[in-house]
Fold:
Amino acid sequence: EIVLTQSPGTLSLSPGERATLSCRASQSVSSSYLAWYQQKPGQAPRLLIYGASSRATGIPDRFSGSGSGTDFTLTISRLEPEDFAVYYCQQYGSSRFTFGPGTKVDIK
Amino acid sequence: QVQLVQSGAEVKKPGASVKVSCKVSGYTLTELSMHWVRQAPGKGLEWMGGFDPEDGETIYAQKFQGRVTMTEDTSTDTAYMELSSLRSEDTAVYYCATTVTIFGVVIRWFDPWGQGTLVTVSS
Structure:
């Protein structure tokens, strides 16, 4: 099973700052099978990025994804108040899906 | 646009079973591949299993094999997840979420998600 590790665990930033979130896989992941989600308290996760770098419908262009192999990054170029949330990466491989433990982006 | 609406919260005793439903609208269930993901209080997301159109069968995460059953009623476009032999560690929000197949390519991310169903296991 592919294990995903996310860092940092918590990112404390101010609105307007840039957020860089990391997702590292225990073995190589197809970029086609790497996704990112945002989750706010009491809500279901929402798809942000699929295929490592494609934004889902309705996602603002301040969100971008990059990476390949075992290292992937989610970047929020300028944090808006509504972006403070928990972010999860997810991969698919060998008929199984796994999620990373999440990165919490909170207000500094 | 696909919408998923799940059944309401449940409280169960240890050893019991729970069955959560997920009603699809906007599409038919046969056009989608349904999966189930759970989230314990204050914890991360955990994939439990779902239908793999490439394999033509439902795949369960090893952790839940023998204890979980995922079924579908295509006449009502409703999916079900039943978890048996419940223990306190099964207290969690259970989500249904879908993948689709587009022009023969199986999409391997989840969109959309149901609103979640809280299952509490307590004596």
